[in-house]
């Protein structure tokens, strides 16, 4: 069973994402900001990360940069999932090492499509 | 609606589009036709049926057919057919067509264009390899409405996230507000035409590859056999047919045989009447 970390400051989004990903037979952990997510990754590196951009304490972009410099931090597939839906944000995320990008709002089909694209399904 | 109204609609749809509305799908009549009743200013579904019976309103008839056909489409839908296209079909055809450097592809039920545009992206990514080649994509559908959308090349944020990798979105689309438009160069690679598969499609000419995915499942066996037989006649003897994951080419008298190692991929049999190669000039004169 693949392990996915859902990082979003909205508990509703985390709950919806958890439900979708558990339906895809994944084990889920949650974090409400980048700092907590980084701590969890240092304890156990997940297979995939569904990552919001705008969050308090540490945003998704900063988290991604720090993650990729950790030992083993290049392994998780990172799927951004954000309302930052313009080309410049998408391009910036991809340059920083994101593997895929979901523009909110999302549904089950989109999450499934993106997770399949990065090889998590 | 009375049972007679329902029978009439089922027969009407079968004759116009080949769509077989079984008992299990009759509930769809109400939900999909109600918006047409409202738009046409009619009082009820029976009033719509009465108008169709009178045969005076061909635009209304087309609206009813379009409302009942399923137009769901995704970029790179099911994945495997597109891998087969790049890894199996394209190399074989490039070897076999080295003299004419021409490949013709038909997307037989293209809906809003995701399938032909997926192929266009794959071809564009192989531009160097295909330098000097003419690859033509003919994309047809029964519905004028979906073809208009396909021609526009404009997709919603939801549509571009279903099956389309983000790197291809960035590479081949530009953002227009909350929508995304495919690059003009790719849009020009596909010719979109209205076509009813129940009618004669021989003027389209001969094809090397036919994508006919997730459309035959809506036809009864006799219609499916007829359409497949006529597709076989439009194909090069060494061409390829791709069907949906849940579709087959019927039994022993089929004009196609399954590829020995690729599910969903079929090749014409000698009995298919697959067209012998014609000169390029003659072939393209028909479709231009």
From TrEMBL, chain A:
Any Pfam family hit: Response_reg
Alphabetical list of InterPro entries matching this protein: CheY-like_superfamily, Sig_transdc_resp-reg_receiver, ST_Response_Regulator
Sequence positions bearing 4-aspartylphosphate: 52
Keywords: Phosphoprotein
Alphabetized PROSITE patterns for the sequence: RESPONSE_REGULATORY (PS50110)
Residues of the Response regulatory domain: 3-119
SMART domains linked: REC (SM00448)
Coiled coil (residue ranges): none
Signal peptide: none
Any one biological process term the GO annotation gives: phosphorelay signal transduction system
PANTHER family to which the protein is assigned, alphabetical: TWO-COMPONENT RESPONSE REGULATOR, TWO-COMPONENT RESPONSE REGULATOR ARR22
Name this protein carries in UniProt: Response regulator
Species: Methylopila jiangsuensis
Organism taxonomic ancestry: Bacteria, Pseudomonadati, Pseudomonadota, Alphaproteobacteria, Hyphomicrobiales
Automatic annotation (TrEMBL), chain B:
Reactions it catalyzes: L-glutamyl-[protein] + S-adenosyl-L-methionine = [protein]-L-glutamate 5-O-methyl ester + S-adenosyl-L-homocysteine
Coiled-coil blocks: none
Documented EC number(s): 2.1.1.80
Keyword terms: Methyltransferase, S-adenosyl-L-methionine, Transferase
GO biological process: methylation
GO terms assigned for molecular function: protein-glutamate O-methyltransferase activity
PANTHER family: CHEMOTAXIS PROTEIN METHYLTRANSFERASE, CHEMOTAXIS PROTEIN METHYLTRANSFERASE 1
Protein name: protein-glutamate O-methyltransferase
Organism annotation: Methylopila jiangsuensis
Gene assigned in the entry: cheR1
């Amino acid at each position: 069973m693949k392990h996915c970390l859902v990082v979003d400051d909205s508990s509703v989004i985390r709950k919806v994402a958890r439900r979708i990903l558990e339906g895809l037979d994944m084990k889920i952990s949650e974090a409400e900001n980048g700092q907590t997510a980084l701590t969890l990754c240092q304890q156990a590196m997940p297979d995939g990360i569904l990552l919001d951009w705008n969050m308090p304490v540490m945003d998704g972009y900063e988290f991604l940069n720090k993650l990729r410099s950790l030992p083993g931090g290049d392994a998780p597939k990172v799927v951004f999932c954000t309302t930052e839906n313009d080309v410049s944000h998408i391009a910036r995320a991809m340059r920083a090492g994101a593997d895929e990008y979901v523009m909110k709002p999302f549904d089950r089909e989109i999450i499934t499509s993106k997770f399949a694209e990065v090889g998590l399904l | 609606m009375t049972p007679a109204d329902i029978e009439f609609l089922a027969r009407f749809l079968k004759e116009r589009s080949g769509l077989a509305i079984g008992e299990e799908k009759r509930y769809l009549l109400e939900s999909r036709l109600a918006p047409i009743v409202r738009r046409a200013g009619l009082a009820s579904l029976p009033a719509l049926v009465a108008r169709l019976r009178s045969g005076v309103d061909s635009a209304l008839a087309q609206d009813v057919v379009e409302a009942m056909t399923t137009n769901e489409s995704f970029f790179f839908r099911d994945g495997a057919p597109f891998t087969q296209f790049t890894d199996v079909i394209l190399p074989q055809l490039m070897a076999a067509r080295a003299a004419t450097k021409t490949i013709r592809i038909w997307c037989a039920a293209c809906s809003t264009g995701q399938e032909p545009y997926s192929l266009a992206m794959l071809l564009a990514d192989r531009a160097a390899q295909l330098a000097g080649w003419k690859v033509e994509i003919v994309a047809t559908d029964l519905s004028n409405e979906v073809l208009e959308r396909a021609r526009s090349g404009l997709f919603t944020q939801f549509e571009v996230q279903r099956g389309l990798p983000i790197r291809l979105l960035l590479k081949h689309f530009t953002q227009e507000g909350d929508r995304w438009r495919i690059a003009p160069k790719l849009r020009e690679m596909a010719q979109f035409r209205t076509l009813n598969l129940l009618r004669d499609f021989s003027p389209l000419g001969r094809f090397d590859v036919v994508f006919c995915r997730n459309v035959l499942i809506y036809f009864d066996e006799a219609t499916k056999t007829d359409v497949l037989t006529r597709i076989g006649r439009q194909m090069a003897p060494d061409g390829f047919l791709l069907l949906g994951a849940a579709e087959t080419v019927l039994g022993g008298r089929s004009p196609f045989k399954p590829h020995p190692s690729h599910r969903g991929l079929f090749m014409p049999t000698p009995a298919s009447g697959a067209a012998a190669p014609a000169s390029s000039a003659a072939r393209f004169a028909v479709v231009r």
